[in-house]
Amino acid sequence: MPTSVKTRTAPTRPAPEDPAFRTRADEVYAQLKRDVAEFSLVPGDRFTESEISERLGVSRTPVRQALFRLQQEGYVEVLFRSGWRVLPFDFDQFEQLYDLRMVLETTAVHRLCESDHRVDRSLLDSLAGIWLVPAAQRSADTVQVAQWDEEFHCALVAAAGNAEMARVHRDVTDRIRIIRRLDFTQQSRIAATYEEHAKILKAIRANRGDQAAMLLRAHIETSQAEVRKITLHQVHMARMTGRR
Predict the structure, then answer these.
(1) What is the CATH number of domain 91-243?
(2) Does domain 20-86 correspond to CATH entry 3.30.70.250?
(3) pTM of structure
């Protein structure tokens, strides 16, 4: 009679994005990126690794690792023998990313409205539960609405069923997040987002692809213009405050 072999199950490891995997360099990276996003570090500001190390209470090694990562992403640059500098916002690059986002999202909504196309309706239903609600039930939490807005656009692309398209869209989303979040610093923009998302969803549900794409395009273009205006204003105010 053959002897049964017991297989040993490998212990489950947390996913790379799990907090258990976060290193000190990851924490420094996240903090410095927040500093740039919140204009605590203004484009043009110069600093040294020692200054960051002292401020955050860490050694220079994780600071250097975090800065090299931010350098690769285009947020800072290293200066010869004189530390680091926060790079100006590259609006040309952001506009190119917004153009790519526009192509991906409008293509997705057209596919969502094609009768012969396989669509993940559960994703669309979950969006309706957030955006198709009475005004009294809308959230006024800017952080929450910013997150919901990002998830709305990602869900539209994911629901269209093309995994590669969704992957590229998530990458674009990650790269524009630092300025896109500024669109929700004003309550009027939150109200407009609810109204515009609702119209887009209703057009998709009615299988009106051209209308949905037109509404989506207008929505993204308005957000892009607002973000640019707010970014320039925030940079100006941060510089004025720093001079006092």
Answers:
(1) 1.20.120.530
(2) no
(3) 0.74
